[in-house]
Amino acid sequence: MTFLFSLFRFLSWIISVLFQTFKFFFISNIPLPPPPFSLLRVPYVPLRRIIDFMDPDTLVSLSFCSQKSHSVIKTQRRARFDGRLCVSEYDSNLSFRTFRNRDCVLSVCDCSYFSSSERSDYVKMNGRYVPVKTHRSDGNLVSHWYNTTDGLKTITEYVTDLFNIDVSIVCVSKDAINMIEWAIKRQKTPLKSVTVCGVTSSEEELIYILRDCKTSSQIEIRSYAPPNFRFSEMFRKIDFLVIWHGQWVTIDNLLTMDGIDIILAYSNLSNNDLNVFLKHWLSGGCPRLKLFCAITGSVDILQVLDGLMHNAVLVEDSRYYTRQYPFGYSRTLSFGYDIQRADGVKATVCEQENEMVIAVWPETAQNYN
């Protein structure tokens, strides 16, 4: 009976804490009325468990309530967050991203979109008072700045310090080099991923992304290249490379790539180019490759396999191709040809709606290294 009563009190306390958190996270300068069971008076072991169960955006909101709440969150949280922390200049926010979801933590917005009647709620962030409001659909805090780039940097410093973590992903659309270099220089661990969005990147930015940008695994270029742009240098080692507007990618570029996943959209590569690349892989080139996809104007699978039909086995059945690296991936492969490299590694080559796919089998750990 005593146990049930204690359990009931504990559950009631959790509900009370959550209610107080959502009710008071804006008014950091007003003393909070104590909940029925004070959060900061709970012994450290159960307190850590409670904090570990809270969502990142809730913890950020709670951290603004007082210096003590900030200190408790910073020192007591131990659980790993689900996903990689992304700072996005394109979306003007910080979020934790997984393969399927994006959980926003804190956002920035231009002050010109914040009416004077709303500027009554402020939080203290890195020594300055910042007007905030709650995002209507996501529920996270939106901070307002005259310079949104400065605001994005400030909220990044605040959140990474609060959670004792580094940024994993940077998404940029303007002033890409400076933003990426700022993120790289401010932390000890390397960035895992860089995404470039926007209308058109400069030649300088694209060369920097492809040759000099220091990330450990992933580059995604969603922007257009300038007219007549060409990349004449060797591609550096990039595990996961996605180029959405790949009209500028040539067969010479393709033959210098060393990646695990290579995805090209709106490519001008010809069937003959794809045939050359496939022969390159069969002879030992691009040895880490697990998945290659190129969306072109027209794919003729027989031209792609020209000169290789003696090594090709038709497979009419559909098969599931499943990946666990880097975030998880699956697709259905149908009506393809299996080909085998001299070392015994097999790949399926197939055409799916003007997309040429090379999917390497089997999935083994050494293929990721």
Automatic annotation (TrEMBL):
**Domain F-box span(s) in chain numbering:** 36-84
Q: Which organism is it from?
A: Caenorhabditis remanei
Organism domain of life: Eukaryota
Q: Cite a single Pfam family from the UniProt record.
A: F-box
Q: What is this protein called?
A: F-box domain-containing protein
